[in-house]
Amino acid sequence: MLPLPLLLLPLLPLVLGLAHPLSSTHSLLARHGLNLRQDVLHGLLSGPGPFPQDPPWTTDYPTSFGGYCAPNSSQTVGTFAGPTLPSLQDLLKRNAFVSRSGTGLELLGEEFRIVGANVYWLGLDENVIPDPSYPSKNRVIEIMGIVSAMRGTVIRGHTLGISFGNPLSIMPSPDTYNEQAYEPIDFAILMARIYGIKLLIPMVDNYNWYHGGKYQFIGWAGIPWSGTGAAITPPDVGAYFYNTSSIVDSFKAYITHHLSHVNQYTGIAYKDDPTILGWETGNELCAVLYNDGPAPPAWTSEIAGLIKSLAPNHLVVDGTYGFYPESGQLQVEVVDIFSDHFYPPSIARFQAGLALTQSANRVYLAGEWDWTGQYGGDSIQSFTAALEAGPGVGDFYWSLFGHDDHCCLYVEHDDGYSFYYPGRTEDMHDRAVVMTQHAYEMNADASPEVVPAVACPQYAFPDELFPPGLNVANLGL
Ligand SMILES: *[C@@H]1O[C@H](CO)[C@@H](O)[C@H](O)[C@H]1NC(C)=O
Ligand SMILES: *[C@@H]1O[C@H](CO)[C@@H](O)[C@H](O)[C@H]1NC(C)=O
């Protein structure tokens, strides 16, 4: 094997149009916050395989049962996702922002398609004891390995931004901030960066679940309500989130605090981090009742405008659930991406929303879709094919889970949409294959005949792959 810089040298002029003395590779990478040793040839999953039948590396954890369960999944699918050498192009992509050009996205001058998983629990999880708690590092790293093996480009993660009203939240009580809550979020962002995955982060939830949302702000303003999830009394109380200036101010202060936070592991402020593709004004926002209408366009304009002023290199997704063209939703200029969710998948609904989005010259995102088929709708094959054929369209299935802290049992969640890679049943495995092929298709890549297994725990990373200045011992890996 040639030393890395020699392998990459021919790429340099293509990528950057630079002169190419060998030493410039290192200084180039260093300028991008990357520190790469010549002999680092393993320890990193970066996009697609190759997925060798016989991995050429040795694992530093037991592959027999002995306390670990997950590596056995190789027996069901045949190959392991191998740590692969990132190309210089891959490394540069980690430090580049995804930008919008009309109805499509670009990264380093190439088309960029959003495709990946919803993983809502990366910042705080409710499916573990004690409930809630911050997810373990093993769990977060396994998810990055799975999304990488499935060829995902982006993860949509609610609790990386939605964090209100619990002692473990970023904002446990009105206008107070809990800096401890940032450790798991900083770590998830670090790991996404190392795996070459981008993140889309919603800022507030339309419902009242464990991680909080708009109802915490409403309650803090002294307006009474009760209920969980979407079943809230009185039913129109959610409108106060948009029409009360003290609440809007408090939410804007939260956004400013969150986007200004400096990641303790990377040293990069969230607003300046190319790992973050963008921010969504909220999840499934409706103005009054569930499915009653959009977030008011004036509110979306104000919130999206604040996000753009803080993070001009990031994209903004309108968090409205679906399309309400008569409201003026599509006239909010500062929005980059409009989105809809699919329970069940519906090609007709998708096509209608896509046509509206294209007429507004913006990007379309299927932010959540039901991968299970349990409620009918269009088949997973036909729905993913329609998404692929839609120019610039992106999508995330709902939703990905993995193993517990010890890579042994699956973490169970009760909403009926939990997806486990490479599948816990034959049907789930068949769908995992379709979902993986779909992501390859979105990346304009030939898909693998056999989906790769994902090791849990993931491979140990050479220290050189972490950002300079990070004390890896402090990660507790
Ligand atoms: C892993 O596979 C081996 C060989 O098929 C089997 O003996 C062992 O019981 C498996 N372990 C688990 C945890 O499934
Ligand atoms: C805000 O919305 C609530 C609930 O619909 C409504 O009762 C109230 O009058 C609204 N306030 C303003 C200032 O529009």
Automatic annotation (TrEMBL):
Span of domain Glycoside hydrolase family: 97-323
InterPro entries: GH, Glyco_hydro_5, MAN-like
Catalytic activity: Random hydrolysis of (1->4)-beta-D-mannosidic linkages in mannans, galactomannans and glucomannans
Keywords: Glycosidase, Hydrolase, Secreted, Signal
Gene Ontology CC: extracellular region
The EC number(s) this enzyme carries: 3.2.1.78
Family statement: Belongs to the glycosyl hydrolase 5 (cellulase A) family.
PANTHER family per UniProt: MANNAN ENDO-1,4-BETA-MANNOSIDASE 1, PTHR31451
Protein name: mannan endo-1,4-beta-mannosidase
UniProt organism field: Calocera viscosa (strain TUFC12733)
Species lineage: Eukaryota, Fungi, Dikarya, Basidiomycota, Agaricomycotina
